[in-house]
Amino acid sequence: MKLHAFGARGSLPAPSTAGFNTSKYGGNTTCYYLEAGPFQIIIDMGSGARPLGDYLLKKGENGKPFIFLLTHYHSDHIQGIGFCVPFYIKQNTFYIHGFTPEGRENVDPLKNVVLQALEEQQASPYFPVPHGLLPANKRYRAHNRMFSEEFYYVEKAGDFLYKTESDIQDSHSFKRDKIIKVTTVPLHHPNGCLGYRVDYMDSSLAFCTDNEPFAFTNNKINNLCKDVDLIVLDGQYTAEQLAGLTQTFGHGNPELCVDQAIDCNAKRLLITHMDPGHDDKKVTEMEKTCIDYYTKKKSDTLKGVEFVKEGETWEV
Ligand SMILES: [Zn+2]
Ligand SMILES: [Zn+2]
């Protein structure tokens, strides 16, 4: 698999200005793209979805299906959808996964809660194009935000077919390189959040932002993300910030991410969701503190830690 970062900023975009440089780590909010054999997977569409769309167009990825894993509905994770050109191409298909927001469990089953949440951010007068009118084909699935669920996609004749666990157990006719497994991971965040684990062939990646360390979800992450090759975790604040005013905001700090990555036996750790108030100088300091902490831990399993820089790619 290959992971591309198109946005790693948290909460709000943070463009570079005189005296406040963010060009090293980037200013766009959360958007990642994962290539796994025949599968194209997008994780969140913050403001990084605009450059992601440009990248996909330039690569000629038109008329293709995309699996879109949405962690949650905070604006820094969905604000780029209306600016992502592939949504305006009717030959494209997006298989969009999200969760049922708290209080909407009893919404009319015909009214998909994922679609409803995305329609709301693009409703008049907040955006000129209603989400439902974006020309691409769109299919929505809502998961439970409190429990883990597993699902699969199978590549067939250039499309992706959704499969449940029982579909997969009943059939041995799927070729290994044509099937991908996704596991949802409940996270601790205001209004709820889902992490995702993706397994393809012998490679695995876990993506768990936005999350404030909390016993219940720490254990979930340890169990569901066990032995992953790469884990992406939320290290927005410094330890001092997290002990003070920003407690309960739903984010972590880099040292706690190192502890979590070691606890779940991950091989590599990426820190994401950088604070919009932290310029490159501050994030560089945080990265150094984090690497010092990691080095002192002398972990046998965790082989590396780094902060995400927009535009970078990683082989998984
Ligand atoms: Zn966020
Ligand atoms: Zn959030």
Q: What does it look like?
A:
By secondary structure, the chain is an alpha/beta fold. 22% of the residues lie in helices and 28% in strands. The protein has helices at 49-58, 75-78, 113-121, 165-169, 215-224, 239-243, 254-263, 280-297, and strands at residues 2-7, 31-36, 39-43, 65-69, 93-99, 137-143, 150-156, 159-163, 179-187, 193-200, 203-208, 230-234, 268-272, 304-307, 313-315. The strands form 2 sheets. Strands 8-7-9-10-11-12-13-14 form an 8-stranded mixed β-sheet. Strands 6-5-4-3-2-1-15 form a 7-stranded mixed β-sheet. Helix 8 (280-297) links the parallel strand 13 (268-272) and strand 14 (304-307). The protein is globular and about 50 Å long. The model has no long low-confidence stretch (mean pLDDT 95). The site of one zinc ion has 7 residues, from helix 2. It comes from candidate division WOR-3 bacterium.
The CATH architecture term is 4-Layer Sandwich
| Estimated share of beta-strand residues | 25-35%
Query: Could you name the CATH homologous superfamily?
Result: Ribonuclease Z/Hydroxyacylglutathione hydrolase-like
Shape: globular
Give the CATH class: Alpha Beta
Q: What is this structure's SSE topology?
A:
Elements: E1 2-7, E2 31-36, E3 39-43, H1 49-58, E4 65-69, H2 75-78, E5 93-99, H3 113-121, E6 137-143, E7 150-156, E8 159-163, H4 165-169, E9 179-187, E10 193-200, E11 203-208, H5 215-224, E12 230-234, H6 239-243, H7 254-263, E13 268-272, H8 280-297, E14 304-307, E15 313-315
Parallel strand pairs: 3-4, 4-5, 5-6, 11-12, 12-13, 13-14
Antiparallel strand pairs: 1-2, 1-15, 2-3, 7-8, 7-9, 9-10, 10-11
